[in-house]
Amino acid sequence: MMFLAAMGLILLAFCGAPLFIVISAAALLAFYSLGVDLSIVTIEMYRLAANPLLIALMLFAFAGYILAEGNSSSRLVRLSRALLGRLPGGFAVVSLLCCAFFTALTGASGVTIVALGGILLPALLKEKYSENFSLGLLTTSGSLGLLFPPSLPLIIYGVVTSTSIGDLFLAGILPGMLMITVLSLYSICKGYKLGLRGDSHVSLQEVSRAAWEARWEIMLPVVVLGGIFSGFFVLSEAAAVTALYVLFMEVVIHRELKIKDLASTVMKTVMMVGGIILILGASLAFNAFLIDQQVPGRVLELIQEHVTNKFVFLLLLNLFLLAVGCVLDVFSALVIVVPLILPMAAGYDIHPVHLGMVFLTNLQIGYSTPPIGMNLFIAGLRFEKPVLQLYRASLPFLFLLLFCLALITFIPRLSLFWL
Amino acid sequence: MTMGARAESVWRILTATVDGLEKTILMALLLFLLGFALLQIVLRNFFAMGIVWGDTLLRHVLLWSSLLGMARAVGERKYIAIDLFPLLLSGRWKKASELACDFFSCLVAGVLCVVSWNFVQSERLVGAMAFLDVPVWWLVTVFPFAFAVMALRFACHFMNSLLAGSRNEPSNEPSGIEFP
To answer: For residues A275 and A284, what is the distance between their CA atoms, to the nearest angstrom?
Structure first.
């Protein structure tokens, strides 16, 4: 009977029922079968509201949405172009850096492709990069900054696993830079092969002009990271200051966001974060049931019978997560899968921070993995290209990212260097 | 004006009012969250003081904005869902899966509403205070309220698809969530 119910729920989830409803239903059924008072589901959701990190989640998301409304993206592109334009293949590197910067601040992907893609694609094509190269680059780097602070998925991983956010923020720096470096080298080689010589018109004057124009954006990481790592603010306060800073920048300084448009930005924020928080609450309730039934322990025993080596376990985990990343978006994947995997990983002596990096890198890549990675569809809509062409275009980039994933997985020191 | 037209205009005014009210409340909640968090920073760093119950208040504001935000997301169909089959299915099967999802979601939201109402009642009996003189049970009434709104909206979606289906019109409601 329970098996049938579980199958029915999975079927409904794939049919497009809201994930929050599906997980809540699972929790309700589970507690009903145990004969426990069902209000425990609400109690678990209420318990989640006590987590101060969620305030940071809401306010960082707000800041990200405001940032996406204005023209910050074009100012950033102009500045990085002035700095790197002389390099052969420099503009591809510019695109990578801008995407990473933008994704770190706006959280998950989607917005990066929508906000930056429109500026970067024509510019890449004008530099004589092939269409497929440009499309592949923009599609896969739509989620490139996921490991850099203060990205929302990092915060959610911290909430779910009760890992220190400061540690996670530090841990993401090297793996994130690794991916950017590898993709940059590839782009430079490609540029060199195409005979691109870089833009020799770029002058020091242009650099200073572009830097002056983007001065508010440049200071943003200093405000966010300086505030957190100096210990001057706790995370939720840093998020409040960031939101205020971005609001001030877009409304007062640049005047790109009208007060009357603020309402739609607020609505987008509460709808998205509300959705995430409710999924988080519902899956907390469901996980309480799983832990009560000792499910993670039993699965661990089962796996340990067959897999004794830590690295084999990590390899299997990667395959599993890549598949998950294709089907679920990063937020739901984190909330549903992490609590199950965490005790298993502990059984193999894997550091939770390292696990977090492996997890997020996988999900980041899963975003652009065929057949249903979300970046592919967003890029398809944005650039008006068939998804099949984007599959092909993304392949070389995906292989390089998988190579980085292997390094991140099997060299834990990359993630634990600063700890 | 016929009865039908009058009913329709009343309905339109009603939905516009609810829409405006909802936007105003959500906007007020989020801006309060931001403003109050900033106030706490200023008080602590420049005046070496703080509002002791401030954090509890903020967490409840967050709870309210999340639940009401989700209720709104249900109305606009901008929630997180896997949406795999709707990509593969078409025609009658797609319609059927949509109807099944809305019906099921309405049911679950209804159960959640009842269950959280019981939670509110038990908190009321306990009579604990969240902060100052504000009892916890006042603050958690947002649970049954938001779930009731969600159930109602799923029911509306269900009825709309059913009616559109019987007239053989495709429903072009947007689906999926627009990520930040």
So the answer is: 14
